[in-house]
# Entry
Amino acid sequence: MITLEKDQSTHTESVQNYVNQVFETVKKRNPNESEFHQAVKEVFESLIPVLAKKPEYIQHAILERIVEPERIISFRVPWVDDQGNVKVNRGFRVQYNSAIGPYKGGLRFHPSVNASIIKFLGFEQIFKNSLTGQPIGGGKGGSDFDPKGKSDGEIMRFCQSFMTELSKYIGPDTDVPAGDIGVGSKEIGFLFGQYKKVRGGFEAGVLTGKGIGYGGSLARKEATGYGTVYFVEEMLQDRNLSFEGSTVVVSGSGNVSIYAMEKAMQLGAKVVACSDSNGYIYDGNGINLETVKRIKEVEKQRISAYVTDHPQAIYTENCNGIWTVPCDIALPCATQNEIDQASAELLVSNGVKAIGEGANMPSTLEAIEIFLENNVLFAPAKAANAGGVSVSALEMAQNSARLSWAFEEVDSKLHAIMKNIYQNSKKAAQEYGAPGNLVIGANIAGFVKVADAMIEQGVI
Ligand code: GLU
# Structure
């Protein structure tokens, strides 16, 4: 508990000390979880101005409570591969915060998945979901299972085993998972099938990102990438800039990246580079998106295959080398910490004007610092990539109403949501003395709604 000082700077200092103390406890309680610490540090530092202004958040121990997941489930996932060998993976679901709605957030299947990754993603999801304006709490889950190189049969058996356990903890009004890295419509289909079988009922709203034929929403596939570009478009407009005629680099070549490229191209940008976890391609003529879609969505090949169809393009090993490509706008849409200090410095010295984070936490804290210091427009992930989960919430709404909206209807709702997130983040940054700093603005705007709900609901 802090004592309120008359002098504003002494007061801010004591709030800073309080925040540091809570952060130290987080580190002690969650040792060796560097990604989780990074996500918490960024949010906590952003919240200092709001805590200084509204002592009730400190009195009600909101920071101490919000950083502690309501529940974490960790479970064994045994399955049998095509050769008959028994394999065991670890499954997770973190049910982080349900103050404003059922837990909501994706599942990530990737060998790097561990408690730190799932907790950082779950923590971010609380604020992201609040920013969408939809009634959804924060959650995340996944497994260290690597879908790469697995047969459809192996993926199905893994998903069935994963869901047999997870089904005990989720439901349309409790916790609603979706996709993330390594989990697309194929995996969601297998997960939904198993949930339906073990629960004995068709509960459409238990998962989002479903196939269109059984309760999925049109425009969900495009939503994260389109949403990132809609958000960046708003940010650019404020500085009289636009995608039209600009050179864009988009890392990744998964769902987020492909649809960010598509929307940027529709708005008149030339996208010259994209990547996968092995390397990146540079095509000075502008990337041919149909080829990328065929390679990644149909043939499931590596991005290096692009040069077979487009010999003028260059493939280079080392995916992070993509940030050496000069551009006006960079959209990191691959994974966490893909832009470090050195890459940020390179982007700045090559004249980048704006960064839009399509992936979750793709820039390190040092990289963000460099962008902000150099007056580069910076759209932070929890605001810029909120389009995916926004349309997931619209999918839940359609499932509850037992109807489905046209593509244009969902897309226009998504566009309105992204504009709204931009305006709310910008306004919060201004109100709390950091005009133009969307990192602070998004964190505060997302936090306030959840914190107020937590106070109203008592100490739980
Ligand atoms: N995995 C996505 C995210 O990071 C989407 C989550 C969802 O649709 O629930 O926000």
User: Anything to note?
Assistant: The chain has three domains: 2-67, 71-204, 221-379. The pocket of glutamic acid is lined by residues 104-106, 178, 180, 208, 360, 388-389, 392 (CB under 6 Å). The first strand starts at residue 71 and ends at 80.
